[in-house]
Write a structure and sequence with these properties.
Blueprint: H1 2-12, H2 19-40, H3 45-52, H4 78-92, H5 97-111, E1 118-120, E2 129-131, H6 132-135, H7 150-177, H8 192-199, E3 203-208, H9 218-229, H10 235-239, H11 252-269, E4 270-280, H12 285-297, E5 300-307, H13 312-319, E6 330-336, H14 352-362, E7 367-368, H15 370-383, H16 394-403, E8 406-409, E9 414-417, H17 419-425
Parallel strand pairs: 3-4
Antiparallel strand pairs: 1-2, 4-6, 5-6, 7-9, 8-9
Helix pairs in contact: 2-4, 2-5, 2-7, 3-4, 4-5, 5-7, 8-11, 11-12, 14-15
The structure holds S-adenosylmethionine.
């Protein structure tokens, strides 16, 4: 909640002031820091510690249990800690608040590169890569940490911020000349339930991307920034995070319950006849059940379900796994009718075999994406009023597709019709074996 808002507000504030002021602020920082940070690279550990003592250090908070190191400062080498502390000290001395904030944005982006969880991407320049918190979603300390040059790392980020300032100026200028410029922007950093109380019936459109079960504990991972920025969330906020697990071991049943309530909260915030889009993906069909059932009960109709497969982000995720990885999200779009619907449930289990046979027989393409098939299955169960009784494991799902004569192409991350099977059973896909 907090980090996204820090970034968004930071970007919006770039509308203030003149680009030349930002450039001058960076020149000044370069004069103050560049040679000092280079010198740091040559100092001994003891000399670095002594240097560091002169600057304010971040609180040495305890990290989540699954981190490789116990406390916050251990995430950094002494040299990195010194460099970051010195840079931060210099940024804090910038007078104009908007310039200070812009440089703080660049500094906070450098935090993710200048720490011991930074892993270089294989076969690329050493600086290309990222923290383990982005790839394996925990604080893993690299066996042989790469220490990027501090000044260069910061300066590149500051230049990105200045480039963003130029883009924002252009966009505002364009808006002023054409459709008019409102310049209004509001940020609310609130738990979804509280937000819903404030904004009931006031919103025109909601696009939401809730956490997908237990994959990523956002607040635990945001400690990297929140600790040093002094914006650690309260325990109450952490307890209401919509995730499974995390350092507080939040339960699956609380997650499902809250996921449903958060969808109802979103519908409650919408004006009548307006739209909500929810981005989601997970093997656990109970999560989809919670979303779809809650939306219907709150008076919203499912009007579109669009899978996002085949793009760059999708293939990046796919590279890390196999056919059991669901990478492309489904964007579910609901229309608020304001008429709550009762969601019926069938007594007997949803007939997965039959539904899959139907979906696969309709597939006229030669290649299929697992995500698309899975999403179609969810929607078939939903339209058959049987989502509550849809139970399927990844393995069963994969087995069914194989039995219908499809093979997984691990290089291209999709399913292809097995030629031999096609000849034997025809295009419709054989089900009788
Ligand atoms: C998949 S991420 C979405 C990230 C977002 N699209 C962005 O670019 O920042 C899920 C987000 O939901 C937030 N979240 C988790 N529990 C929440 C709650 N109870 N109320 C409001 N937001 C919550 C997390 O902090 C996280 O930022």
């Amino acid at each position: 909640m907090g980090s996204a808002n820090f970034i968004s507000q930071g970007i919006v504030d770039l509308a203030k002031g003149d680009i030349a002021e930002y450039e001058r602020a960076l020149v000044k920082l370069r004069e103050e820091c560049q040679s000092k940070l280079h010198e740091l690279e040559l100092l001994s550990e003891d000399e670095i510690k002594e240097f560091t003592n002169r600057f304010e250090m971040p609180e040495n908070l305890e990290l989540p249990k699954n981190a490789d190191v116990r406390t916050y400062r251990e995430l950094f080498s002494h040299r990195q800690l010194a460099a970051l502390a010195f840079l931060r000290y210099s940024v804090d001395r910038i007078e104009a608040t908007y310039l200070k904030k812009a440089m703080l944005l660049a500094w906070s982006a450098s935090l993710a590169k200048l720490n011991r969880t930074f892993l270089s991407a294989e076969g690329r320049a050493e600086s290309r890569g990222g923290s383990s918190i982005f790839s394996i979603y925990r604080y893993k300390v690299a066996k042989e940490p790469v220490e990027l040059p501090a000044w260069k790392t910061f300066e590149e980020r500051a230049q990105n911020v200045i480039a963003a300032k130029a883009e924002i100026d252009k966009a505002i200028e364009f808006k002023r000349r054409t459709s008019g410029w409102s310049g209004k922007f509001e940020i609310h950093a609130k738990n979804i339930d509280d937000l819903s109380k404030d904004l009931g019936g006031k919103v025109d459109y909601i696009f939401t991307d809730p956490p997908y079960g237990g994959h990523i504990s956002y607040l635990d991972l945001s400690t990297l920034w929140n600790c040093w920025l002094g914006s650690m969330p309260s325990r109450k906020t952490r307890q209401s995070e919509l995730i499974v697990g995390g350092d507080l071991d939040l339960t699956e049943s609380a997650y499902v319950d809250r996921l449903g309530k958060s969808i109802k909260a979103c519908i409650n915030m919408l004006k009548k006849d307006k739209w909500l889009s929810v981005v989601f993906q997970h093997w656990n069909t109970a999560y989809f059940d919670a979303i779809l059932t809650s939306a219907a009960e709150a008076g919203a109709d499912l009007r579109a379900a669009v899978p996002q497969v085949g793009d760059t982000i999708w293939s990046m995720h796919k590279k890390k796994g196999n056919e059991s990885v669901l990478a492309g999200e489904l964007i579910l779009t609901f229309y608020k009718t304001g008429k709550p619907m009762k969601v019926g449930t069938q007594d007997k289990d949803f007939d997965i075999e039959h539904a899959m046979a139907k979906i696969l027989s309709k597939a006229d393409a030669k290649v299929l994406y697992g995500e698309n098939l899975f999403n179609q299955l969810i929607l078939a169960a939903w339209h058959g009023q049987a989502i509550g009784s849809l139970h399927i494991t990844k393995n069963d799902f994969i087995e069914i597709i194989k039995r219908h004569g499809w093979e997984y192409d691990a290089a291209k991350h999709h399913w292809v019709k097995n030629q031999f099977e096609t000849m034997l059973f025809g295009e419709a896909g054989g089900t009788g074996f």
